[in-house]
Amino acid sequence: MRNPDIDLDSAFDPQAFQCLGHRVVDLLAEHMASAARREGPVLPAFTPAESLERWPADFPARGGADPIALLAQVAADSNHLHHPRYVGHQVTSPLPWSALLDFVGAFLNNGSAVYEMGPVSTAMERSVVRWFAARIGFEPQTADGVLTHGGSAGNLTALLAARQHAAPCDVWEEGLAPAGALRLIASDQTHYSVRRSAQIMGLGGRSVVPIPTDAQFRMRPEALATALREAKAENSTVVAVVASAGSTATGAVDPLEAIAEICEEHGVWMHVDGAHGGGAVVSDRLRTALRGIERADSVVIDAHKMLLAPALATLVIFRDGRRSFETFSQQAAYIFGGQDPAETWYDLAQRTLECTKRMLGLQVYASLKVLGTDFFAAYVERMYDLGRTFGALVAGRPYWELATAPEANIVCFRYAPPHIQDANEFQLRVREAIVCEGSFYLVKTMLRGKAYLRCTLINPRTEASDLEALLLRVEAEG
Residue range 235-252: average pLDDT? Predict the structure, then answer.
């Protein structure tokens, strides 16, 4: 029976929604303006316990909280990614237009499992995939793929297809036992989602063979060739070689051309994790650094990293589009009617981990359509150039060290004057002090036994002067 005290009509009233929407946008616009003025802390210094106290589970039966006051506190307590001194993880300050697209997609709520549920976003997704396939260097009429929620899901999607392709049996129907020993090969700098994918697929973490990297943290091709020969001698089947196009720790790009040559020689699937650096394909100038990516069998690119989209939106693109249907070789005849999946490409749940997903096609398509491809190329180039500028700034100051010359917009650096006895401890301590005071948000990483401060230059408002101020702040602590 309907509760007469609950007014559903008011909750869905268009005019009330319009009024509230204006107030929410005003709140966020002021939040963005305040961040651009470099006001306030980048990250408010609340411990997990303190945050839990600020957000108790005291939900009233009849509601009554002021929605704008509530959202104002949400904005104030959050990590302020629009602040130019946010230089932390690889999560972008999303474009206002892109955030509005996310809002529209959430409001329309058209899932993309089957075409009937999401006709517009399905068509947009197909066009976005083909455009990026062409930028990678694939033949857009034979390449294919999907958008999925995040790079981890993207890597898993591609590697599931690679497993089905490489295994000597139908793993989906027969299980892993008849397949024998299956291996993944990746550099020792590969994102942890690759090992996690191996574990999810039932291969076990030890099935991932780490390949050592050179002084620039790039996979060594000669070591890869040795690992493939050893796998063959052991009668192990290599599911895929995973190359990085912008590693998480340093932004290093593996030598894709050399890796492609070796993979082709051994008949092994080549997957490129371009979650971060793959976005450089939008730039004619920067895509030359990814030479060889067009020879990969599958590529992952995160739009929520270098394409200014809100999280999460990841492209998973296959050079041979029919391989994308091998990710899940399970039957769902009650939905798909037993047809050739290539003919029903528009029913995307055949190829995605998600049976329901947001309107990811809208998110990327409308950004490219409204702002233009040159806009995104210029943004990526600016961030990469700033990375090199910051690297030169670090290298030119006494007692500073770079882990490697930046290839992209990730810079790893440390301050190690001779009077600091434990340089590793100092990097951790100064980072904690800076984050707690809120003057910057940056992260840390360990590389070959050394602790480094690490910046991802992803906010388009970050300037070289901000980065010089960061160095001065670290030196003051020392």
Answer: 96
